[in-house]
User: Fold this.
Amino acid sequence: MQCLFATREPQEMHSPVRAHLSREGVRWALGRPELHRLLDQFRKGGVLVVWKARPALPTFREFPRKRRKDLNFRHGQSVIPYWKMRLTIEEAIVGCVLGTALGDAIGLPVEGLSRERQFRMYPSLSGHRFFFGRGMFSDDTEHTCAVAEALATSAGDVDLFRKHLATGLRWWLLGLPAGVGFATLRASIRLLVGVSPERSGVFSAGNGPAMRSALLGVCFGSQPSRMCELVLASTLMTHTDPKAVWAAHAVSLAAYQSSSGSVDPEHFQSSLAVALGPDAREFLTLVEEVVASVKLGEDTRRFADSLGLSRGVSGYCFHSVPIALHAWLSFPDSYQSAVLAAIRCGGDTDTTGAITGAIVGAGGGLGKLPPDWLDGLTEWPRTTDWMRALSKCLAESLESGEPRPAPTVPFAAVVLRNAVFTSVVVGHALRRFLPPY
Assistant:
């Protein structure tokens, strides 16, 4: 929800918000279209008054009078053009999960193509191209759903989360998924043969953990120590290289800041530096380059060129995560622009699209996702309705502090779906032997 509070006459708004604003002595709440018109008026004269909450406060309804000291009070036109009120936790989770799925599905048909060949084969990439204008998602989204199920059934307890996520990865592997990362495959096989989740990981800096970490930030970003523990549990289960941990932590922090409405490149950079410490100097230098590039107004492809990724982004987390962060910080309020900016860099496009989509989707919720992309997502048994039900279940678990049984899908249906999915993937692989080259 986009809101600004100003000292003028009341306007039309939802009753609960209007009632709360009245109690707090605030007289106006606006959506973004009205806000832009108001800003045009204020540029001609007048004083704009904005109340901006710190990210730790989860919703506007938690602004009682006794916590006025927790609010930053600003005057004048030096304020940010608009202030994004934090979404409810369910809205942020839905946006993150479905944002992952759409970014994954849009990027999947062009995965592995160089940037030049991608533009030759798909001059326009404004919708699904996987199967006759329809889209399906890959392991990026499946792992995000596994994380959501593990969080819902554990209520964020780290040990239970680790146990349930390991169970989810075992069943995921038994479903015979296509296009699995090598490190994730090896770790999942180790889990399947009985290795404990604490020892199942392999030394790799692939982007597997990063692609499933955004949801951890959305759910537990306001509890940094808990979020760090969950990121570690999720990452070390498959990847033990510290680089994978740093990259996954960056994605979770980005998703948290996006969902809280505090998208500021320099604040993100400083927060990440505090969270990771001096050992992550190499990765923090990359993030510093991301922020500098965004401030200069460089597009994401030009930034990829500066990293030596002119032919495409690899599955190395020090390549894919900076690209996703750059796309997010360049277009924090435009889901479609951010996702396409990452995908158009080429290479591992389903993962860069999924990570970018998760972060931006967490900040905008379902309402910011392109409706035609949602309508074109053809998935079964993990349908969009199923993912929304899963998100609601997770939100209820977080709000109550109690585990909730996650909605399930028939295992036989997953195997059948994966067989169809694999056949379409093979068709795409064969198509690439044909021009244009």
